[in-house]
Amino acid sequence: MTGQAVFVTGAASGIGAAVARIAARRGYRVMIADVNGPAAAELAAELAAEFKNDVESVVLDVRDADSWDAALASTVERFGSLDVLVNNAGIIHTGNARDLSLAQHRDIVEVNLLGTITGVLTALPLMSAQGRGHIVNVCSMTSFLPLTGYSTYGATKHGMRAFHHSVAIEERDGPVTFSIIHPPSTRTPMLAQEMADPSSVIAFAEKSHSPEEIAEQVVDAIAKKPVEVVFPRWAGRFQRVAGVFPVLMHWAIPRVVRKGHKRRAELAYEGGAR
Ligand SMILES: NC(=O)c1ccc[n+]([C@@H]2O[C@H](COP(=O)([O-])OP(=O)(O)OC[C@H]3O[C@@H](n4cnc5c(N)ncnc54)[C@H](O)[C@@H]3O)[C@@H](O)[C@H]2O)c1
């Protein structure tokens, strides 16, 4: 598997940065793609020096189709192929639905859902023409269970999961394979953003994980090509069952919110969310 070219979006921070680091350590050639160009370039230089490996960066705004065309073309030019696309870039605006502006709701959809769709649609013909490719979409547990404070964020993740599996099944006889991964709460700047908003509680109801733990799952998926990964497995069972039965959902979520309030009060993010 080593030597394959892996393109990771949102790779200047959090889970994406950890994916880039672990992939580089395992011998993949890595393209760090992010809307934050300077941070992407800095990480690429650091990883290239640390692992004596091909690690490059490119500015990518996942909302922009032209930006996708240019970023993937430059990856093929630099590495000779595009073997793996990890769609990881994502954003959140915290708060209940009524407290966010329409612009904020649209922003989440543009990045999380349309950004992923655009990436898949740009990579698919390219990978099909080269006769191989693997697309890994980083989704969320909120794709199974609607949660308070995550209305449009969860809607984009529900949509991403539906889009992902539809396309994966449409393309089942082609050369491109698909995996989707659902991280739980992960200690990244996104979780810090949630910690900064006192109304944002539900992410703190359960133990959080390090970006490296999630990135190990993502990079493992590059080699093993699982259809879907829920991590940790036991958490996924609750989310999946509650997401199917609305009465259970409406009973359970307020209880999880109460637990989130209690645990949030105990946690200081910089002191170590756990
Ligand atoms: N942190 C969590 O608790 C958690 C849980 C489940 C799923 N996720 C998902 O994991 C992914 C990574 O999240 P994270 O926590 O590492 O976030 P993060 O905020 O640490 O990093 C997100 C990265 O995406 C980049 N980005 C934002 N908008 C972009 C755009 N338009 N084009 C290109 N890049 C853009 C940012 O510059 C940043 O580098 C997201 O899709 C998120 O929804 C996170």
Hetero ligands: nicotinamide-adenine-dinucleotide
Give the fraction of residues assigned to helices.
40-55%
Unreliable segments (pLDDT under 50, ≥5 consecutive)?
none
Beta fraction:
5-15%
Largest sheet: 7 strands, parallel
- Count structural domains: 1
Shape annotation: globular
Distance between the termini: 33 Å
The tally of helices reads 10
Q: Tell me the Rg in angstroms.
A: 18 Å
Structure explained in plain terms:
The chain is an alpha/beta fold and 274 residues long. It has one domain (5-272): NAD(P)-binding Rossmann-like Domain (Rossmann fold), CATH 3.40.50. It has 10 helices and 7 strands. The protein has a 7-stranded parallel β-sheet, with helices on both faces. Helix 1 runs parallel beside helix 2 (37-51), helix 1 packs across helix 7 and helix 3 (65-79) runs parallel beside helix 4. The radius of gyration is 18 Å and the shape is globular. The protein starts with a strand and ends with a helix. The model has no long low-confidence stretch (mean pLDDT 94). Nicotinamide-adenine-dinucleotide (NAD) is lined by residues 9-10, 12-16, 34-36, 60-63, 88-91, 111, 115, 138, 140, 183, 185-186, 188-191. Nicotinamide-adenine-dinucleotide binds next to helix 1, helix 4 and helix 6.
